[in-house]
Amino acid sequence: MNTLRARIILLLAVAIIAVVGIASFVALLLLREPSPTRTIEPFARQIRLIADLVENGIGPVDNPGRAGDFKLSLVPAPGTPDARGSALLGEAMSATGPSLPVLVTRLSRDMPPTLSVQIDPKRWLWLPMPDLPVPQGVPVAFAGWMLLLVLGAIGIAALAADRVIRPLALLEGTIGRIGPDGTLPELPETGTAEMKTTARALNRLSTRLRAAMESRMRLVAAAGHDLRTPMTRMRLRAEFLPEEEREAWLRDLDELDRIADSAIRLVREEVEGGDAEPLRLDRLVDTVCTELAEQALPVTLLRTAPVSVKAGPLALKRALRNLVINAATHGKGAEVALEVLQVEGGGEARITITDHGPGIPPDLMAQVFEPFFRVDPARRQTVPGAGLGLAIAKEIVDRTGGRIEIANRLAGGLIQTVTLPVKDVAAR
């Protein structure tokens, strides 16, 4: 019941059921047929009157007579006793005066019942009678009516809710299909006026977003390209400086070069991305760890599991390299492990990269994926990098459909966790 659709359906269904249910209940009270006892009471009074007349006007028992359709007999009328009819008539007779023994019998289903009334110990009065009203089961019928009402109200409410929230559903579906470049897919401007207006607004927003992303890419690329010329001239001039000053100038220029390259690479990852294809993640992790270990970085591969994922090989390799280098340079060594987990809806490949460094202060943990973030700005001169490694890695992993989580370890250091959806579990 947390969705808007469910709440609208519930509201409309309750409103319809309440209004129609109250109206049906009032109509039932006003239009319901009287109970069988109340219907039979006038008939019971007539029977009592006829019995009194017959008792006072008919001859002796040994000469049974006939007065119209009434008949006197020494025994009740033959046939199958009707216990329900006899009970109802008995109650009605008791309600209208002194009780008289009565018996309702029926010779067959096709024939009307016959009423026998004992007017004295030796005589029975036979009277033809209509069929007694049979209760129609009003509570059961009303329950069935309410059940049909509930089902119909839910169906009507569902249709109404669908029309009401259709523009919202369009928004939700469109947002879920946002591409890696942050732009929205083109939507057909059809349907109701609300749907057309919503689709038109989303298409305009998509066009503006695409233009903004392309403009940013061109701006950063142009800035990075234009920086090359003055940086080259500065390098040439630095060669004529005294040796003690030349080293400082060259370090600053190298840092500017790294910042420009990293900024261009980050924007390129956001805008262009790469073609995803099936690849063996365990082999990629092994390659990354081996290459970095050959570069004299303290990297240890603990374990791997054979698994395939769908991603851009070069982009994912760049992301993993950034994370492992981050742990190796800032965390006094990186320990890497790959495992496969079974979760609801499929499997996940989880890469954990742990180190034994100082960790990150909790108040800065929310900023780790921001561009140019450094825990200690003073380390900019001693540790190579532009502070864009984590931002680039997050962009790549997010586009692949995975996620990155970074947390401090209880024993000290950081644990970086990369989780990717599994394409299939491969054989070694």
SSE order and pairing:
Layout: H1 4-31, H2 36-57, E1 66-67, E2 70-73, E3 80-81, H3 83-96, E4 102-106, E5 114-120, E6 123-128, H4 138-176, H5 193-238, H6 243-271, E7 277-280, H7 281-294, E8 299-303, E9 308-311, H8 313-330, E10 334-343, E11 346-354, H9 389-400, E12 403-408, E13 414-421
Parallel strand pairs: 8-10
Antiparallel strand pairs: 1-2, 2-6, 3-4, 4-5, 5-6, 7-9, 10-11, 11-13, 12-13
Explain the overall architecture.
With about 425 residues, the chain is an alpha+beta fold. It has four domains: about 5-30 and about 135-175, no CATH class; about 35-130, no CATH class; about 180-270, Helix Hairpins, CATH 1.10.287; about 275-420, Heat Shock Protein 90 (2-Layer Sandwich), CATH 3.30.565. Helix content is about 50%, strand content about 15%. It has nine helices and 13 strands. The strands form three sheets. The protein has a six-stranded antiparallel beta sheet. A hairpin with a 2-residue loop joins β1 and β2. The longest helix is centred in the middle third of the chain and has 46 residues, at about 195-240. The protein is rod-shaped and about 150 Å long. The protein starts with a helix and ends in a 7-residue tail after the last strand. Mean pLDDT is about 75; it is low at about 60-70 and about 380-385.
Distance between the termini: 46 Å
Number of domains: 4
Question: What is the level 1 CATH name of the largest domain?
Answer: Alpha Beta
Determine the fraction of residues in helical runs and give it as a percent range.
40-55%
CATH hierarchy: architecture of the largest domain: 2-Layer Sandwich
The structure class reads alpha+beta
The SSE order reads HHEEEHEEEHHHEHEEHEEHEE
Radius of gyration: 46 Å
| Average of per-residue pLDDT values | 76
Strand order of the largest sheet: 1-2-6-5-4-3
Report the biggest beta sheet as strand number plus sense, adding barrel if it closes: 6 strands, antiparallel
Number of strands: 13
